[in-house]
């Protein structure tokens, strides 16, 4: 790097840290701690396993329903504004919950409070996530050829929060439910304040007609269809997510019933997978520089398919853990490719709507995987994993074959 370019690069890196990475870190921490901590809080407060499961559904169902609104609002109002307001709203909801649980630690009021927290934080977190992703996409476009490095850092932030957030929420809950909520509220407030430094994103014209509830998703779907490279990659990863979702849903049964391990071993499985994903994301930053998006993506697709097929026949828990870690590491590499391609191709005026539609499509296999797990006898789980792995391999092979000559992955 020349002496003239060095100060500019340093300013760009510092701007990314202040305006993108730090707000995203605080939001991802609040996201992970509330997503995994509130179901624990429900169990701690109510003692009901059924209500705990219901609370988890209350977190995710409103999120899925909010995708269309979130994308449209971000496109219309700008990422930084929505990011700040959503984080601030989550702060107020968590603070109110802490006060109510301090005054009513048990009983009907406590139960109603924690269930309301599950629904409200789920929706607000979705808005802040879409806004943060939109800001990250804009930063990737400004980075030009180094877009994949920006996306790799953002994915690493998310994976680190996923690795540490649930454990932190569990430890904080030992001090008491109000105390846990106060800490998460403080982190959410930090995210809101840091979001004030997030660079503004382009917004839709003020005279444009307002979207209906599903209008944002319709806009996003049309944009995906108009971008064949993005469409093929989303299709392949959606089919891959059926296998990953089934492995996640079936993991407790496989680890405890089939391999005879404790429930702690299930947590170790996913912690190891998260650590492997972090390592993969860091490696992919440099591999893409040398080999390009398509080569790295295709290699990760092949590794994911082979690891998933082998996991169905794993003879021991240790081999199963290694194969799942390899699968999730490969999935992390493909996610870097997706995020980079998304930042390159999606028009700025509809980025939020298209991002929301993309995420919704990628998440749809997960509830299906849960139903499939519930309907499958434990002895037949291996056969279903094999079938899902075959679908995954076929989908990824078709996607990356179609993308082999696409210029979007070779620029």
Question: How are the elements arranged and paired?
Answer:
Layout: H1 5-46, H2 49-77, H3 79-103, H4 108-143, H5 147-175, H6 177-195, H7 215-226, H8 228-258, H9 263-291, H10 293-311, H11 317-345, H12 351-363, H13 365-375, H14 381-402
Helix pairs in contact: 1-2, 1-4, 1-5, 1-6, 2-4, 2-7, 2-12, 3-4, 3-6, 4-5, 4-11, 4-12, 5-6, 5-9, 5-11, 7-12, 8-11, 8-12, 8-13, 8-14, 9-10, 9-11, 10-11, 10-14
What is this entry, summarized?
This protein is an all-alpha fold and 411 residues long. It contains 14 helices and no strands.
Shape by Cα distribution: globular
Radius of gyration using CA atoms only: 21 Å
Write the element-wise H/E pattern from the N-terminal end onward. HHHHHHHHHHHHHH
Amount of beta strand: under 5%
Distance between the first and last residues' Cα = 21 Å
Assembly type: single chain
Summed up, the helix count is: 14
Briefly note the structural class of the backbone.
Answer: mainly alpha
Structure summary, number of beta strands: 0
Percentage of residues assigned to helices: over 70%
Largest sheet: none
Q: Which stretches of 5+ consecutive residues score pLDDT under 50? A: 1-12, 205-213
Kindly state the mean pLDDT as a whole number? 80
What descriptors fit this protein?
411 residues; mainly alpha; disordered N terminus
What this model shows, in words?
The protein contains 14 helices and no strands. The chain starts with a helix and ends in a 9-residue tail after the last helix. The chain is an all-alpha fold and 411 residues long. The chain has helices spanning 5-46, 49-77, 79-103, 108-143, 147-175, 177-195, 215-226, 228-258, 263-291, 293-311, 317-345, 351-363, 365-375, 381-402.
